[in-house]
Amino acid sequence: MPVTLDSELVQLSRPSIISAALDILDRYGLADMTMRRVATSLSVAPGALYWHVANKQALIHAIAEEIVRPLVPGDGDNTSDFASPEDFAAALHRTLLAHRDGAEVVSAALAQPGSELLSALLADLRALLTSVSTSPHASDEREADVAAETVVHFILGATMLEQSRTQFAAATALGDSDAAPADAAPGSHSIITEGVAMILRGFNSPE
C-alpha cells in the first residue's frame, strides 16, 4: 500500500533530513546528494522534504551549519572555545576534512546571500584576532574584518583543493590496480598552518 503524504510528514523532521543528507554526502559526495536521493534514503516522496527544507540550497546551508557546529557558539553565546586565531583556523581545517566535499559544501553555504553562518564564523574569528593582538590593526574594525575573511577564504580554498586531490588520487588508484597508494596532498596541513601564520603576521605587524 503506497505511503501517503500525511504519514510521510509524521516520519520526517528537519534533523532526520539533515542526517540522511550528511550520510549521503560522506558516502557519495556533493554531486550525488540530490533531494531525490535523500528522499529515497528516507523512504518518502521527494515532495515531502519541502515541508521541512525549502530547496537544495537551504539543505546545503543546513548541512554546512551541522559541519561547523563545533566551531560556532550557539544560543547567543559570544564566547569562544579557542585560545587563539591559529587554534580556530586549525579546527576549521580539521572540521572541513571530516566530511567528503566538506569545504565545497561550506563554501556553497557561505556564498548564499545573507548567510548567518558566514557572519557567525567571521565574528568568532574577528573576536579572537582583536583579543590577542597588540597591533594597531586590532583596533581597526575594517582591518580585523578583512583579516578574518582572508583566513576563512584561504582555509576553504586550500582545503577544497586538498579534498579534490585526495578524490582524484583515489579514483586514479581504482583505475590502476598496480599503482602504489599516493599522498594526494603532501604537506597540506603544514602549508595551511604556514599560510595562516603569514596572514596573521601581516595583521599583527606594527606598521
Automatic annotation (TrEMBL):
<dbReference type="GO" id="GO:0046677">
    <property type="term" value="P:response to antibiotic"/>
</dbReference>
<feature type="domain" description="HTH tetR-type">
    <location>
        <begin position="11"/>
        <end position="71"/>
    </location>
</feature>
<dbReference type="GO" id="GO:0045892">
    <property type="term" value="P:negative regulation of DNA-templated transcription"/>
</dbReference>
<keyword id="KW-0805">Transcription regulation</keyword>
<feature type="DNA-binding region" description="H-T-H motif">
    <location>
        <begin position="34"/>
        <end position="53"/>
    </location>
</feature>
<dbReference type="Pfam" id="PF00440">
    <property type="entry name" value="TetR_N"/>
</dbReference>
<keyword id="KW-0238">DNA-binding</keyword>
<dbReference type="InterPro" id="IPR003012">
    <property type="entry name" value="Tet_transcr_reg_TetR"/>
</dbReference>
<protein>
    <submittedName>
        <fullName>TetR family transcriptional regulator</fullName>
    </submittedName>
</protein>
<dbReference type="InterPro" id="IPR009057">
    <property type="entry name" value="Homeodomain-like_sf"/>
</dbReference>
<dbReference type="InterPro" id="IPR001647">
    <property type="entry name" value="HTH_TetR"/>
</dbReference>
<dbReference type="GO" id="GO:0003700">
    <property type="term" value="F:DNA-binding transcription factor activity"/>
</dbReference>
<dbReference type="InterPro" id="IPR023772">
    <property type="entry name" value="DNA-bd_HTH_TetR-type_CS"/>
</dbReference>
<dbReference type="GO" id="GO:0000976">
    <property type="term" value="F:transcription cis-regulatory region binding"/>
</dbReference>
<keyword id="KW-0804">Transcription</keyword>
<dbReference type="InterPro" id="IPR036271">
    <property type="entry name" value="Tet_transcr_reg_TetR-rel_C_sf"/>
</dbReference>
<dbReference type="InterPro" id="IPR050109">
    <property type="entry name" value="HTH-type_TetR-like_transc_reg"/>
</dbReference>
